Amino acid sequence: MPPRNGARFARQFNCIKLPLAGEFICYNRPTGTRTDAGFCMLQVGQPAPGFELPDADMELVSLAAFRAHRNVVVFFYPRDDTPSCTLESIDFSDLYDDFERHQTVVLGISMDDFLSHIEFRDKYGLAVQLLSDVEGEVCGLYGVLQEVEKDGVRRNCIQRSTFVIDKHGMIAQAWYNVKPRGHAAEVLQTIRSLAKCK
User: Fold this and answer.
1) How far is CA 98 from CA 85, 185, 187, 190, in A?
2) Which end of the chain, N or C, is surrounded by fewer C-beta atoms within 10 Å?
3) What domains, with CATH codes, occur in the chain?
4) Which of 85, 139, 157, 197 is catalytic?
5) Does 197 qualify as catalytic in the annotation?
6) How many Å is the Cα radius of gyration of the chain?
7) What is the average pLDDT score of the chain?
8) Where does the pLDDT of residue 60 fall: very low under 50, low under 70, confident under 90, or very high at 90 and above?
């Protein structure tokens, strides 16, 4: 379903709401920028949607807090402690110091609650911050929800996706439908390229 602040979302990202279906569709965008769940996929050069979400320790983390002094990598993943999500989270954690050297913070977001995040973080010794978007509102803003059907029930699930947000709060790179193996190293290379362009 669309995020609660749908009207503001639609204005900000050039979307219109279909009156009967209750979905959002993008206009003035290249083909293929609408997800199965009706959310708009972000593109390089757009302002990154702001958010404030709790981490595993129930401390609120705001994207705006990093503005002007940190790049931000936000990776959305489907579920804690599943094989692909574990691989991706460990890979980002293993490169934590490299991201730090390039003034970059890494945030993982899923629809799991903070208790699940605590168990996941502690089980694997993850260094990255894990944020809880239980209602999926931020996932909707970033266009990472896809509709799936299981046992006759349709629901929105997270499509594995990653965004690099520069110090100006703009989308510097976006990956949808990510394959986890080797992805963290690919993101780090993008961060290094950003540093060379400054």
Assistant:
1) 20, 10, 11, 12
2) C
3) 42-197 (3.40.30.10)
4) 85
5) no
6) 16
7) 84
8) very high
